[in-house]
Amino acid sequence: MVNIVNQIIARAKELEADTSQFLVDIVKIPSLSCEEEAVVSLIKRRMEEAGFDEARIDGLGNVIGRIGSGPRILAFDAHIDTVDTGDLSQWDFDPYDAKVVDGQVRGRGTVDQKGGMAAMITAGRLIKELGLNKDWTIYFTGTVMEEDCDGLCWQYLINEKGIRPELVVITEPTNMNIYRGHRGRMEMAVKVKGISCHGSAPERGENAIYKMVRIILEIEKLNERLHVDSFLGKGTVTVTEVTSGSPSLCAVADMARIHLDRRLTAGETKSSAVEEVSDAAGRAGFPDAEVEVLQYAEKAFTGLVYPTEKYYPTWTLDMDSPFLTHAAEAYSKVLGRDPLIDKWTFSTNGVAIAGMHGIPCLGLGPGNEIYAHAPNEAVPVKHLTEAAAFYAAFVARLNGRI
């Protein structure tokens, strides 16, 4: 047993430069949501070079590697799309000119979350080279469109491809801790109508913007009274966009619309969230305001449109889950310290895997989530090596090897 652990640690360290270089290579390829084709092709080729038993691209564009053909199914997941760079003046370096500097791989997507993808492929190589798997079919999924629509990729994998693992390990950044859940989320719009008139005599009309301002103030108050869960924390709601319409800029607005980001803690549901926003509009004096849960229907790089509602359920893995116990034991053995078991602040593909389909998930990924979507994004090389070693050790543990 000790020998297997030592072999995993030693081989992961030997492959450290290789893991880092692959991350550099995929960060150099921009891959915004719906534009992932080039990086997906490179990842597929890398899986084949690492000795995976199979590597393929599905109809939505997800790249799927497979090791083993056992009766039990395990998956490791990393989304390989990224957000855009934002204001380049806030970066100290070119976000796509990835480099290893001072023990870190830096660039857009290193933390969120191509670092997880690089570590997963190294783990697959370790599993093959060291013969760590016997009982499991293990999928390694590089998933698309997550930044635009969390979990859509896994809705497709489960509903259309019939991939239904016993457990999915999510490799989103956890600062090398083990995470077991996060709040859900949903996107809503609120719309009100006004009556337009010439801007020189606004009293002749009804200004939709003024109506919306009152609703916004009530939503601000709503945020303060939302439910609090002892583990996941507080539900939140915030206005993220305000738009309006009128015949001209010299006319009173006859329409106003806001976009809401709603984070759902345990015990909150889609229907309860909609009712709360409707109530806030009523408190503002506009009970006829239209509250809508939004839809996502963008075209993948493959040309496929796979629509879904923008409701992403809350999920947690029970503390007494045997998978969590195995993960903690593998972590302690291969990394030499006890893990912190915690939760993500943001949302992951777990909203579909666990939230919609009830498939257990846990998470461990390289990098600190505070650098996700932020300028000067960078992941420690040490995290990449440790993550690869953990993934391999976890597989060994599930196969009774450690």
The average pLDDT value, as a whole number, equals: 97
- In what order do the strands lie side by side in the largest sheet? 1-2-6-3-7-21
CATH fold-level name of the largest domain? Aminopeptidase
Structural class: alpha+beta
Number of domains: 2
Would you write up a description of this structure?
By secondary structure, the chain is α+β, with helices and mostly antiparallel strands. The chain folds into two domains: 2-182 and 314-398, Zn peptidases (Aminopeptidase, 3-Layer(aba) Sandwich); 184-296, 2-Layer Sandwich (Alpha-Beta Plaits), CATH 3.30.70.360. The protein has helices spanning 2-14, 16-27, 37-49, 110-130, 152-159, 208-224, 270-283, 322-335, 350-356, 381-398, and strands spanning 54-57, 63-67, 72-79, 99-101, 104-106, 136-143, 167-170, 178-179, 181-182, 184-193, 228-229, 233-234, 236-245, 255-264, 290-293, 295-296, 308-309, 311-312, 315-316, 341-342, 361-363, 378-380. Strands 1-2-6-3-7-21 form a six-stranded mixed beta sheet, sandwiched between helices. Strands 10, 13, 14, 15 and 18 form a five-stranded antiparallel beta sheet that branches. A three-stranded antiparallel beta sheet has the order 4-5-22. It is elongated and about 80 Å long. It starts with a helix and ends with a helix. The relative contact order is 0.20.
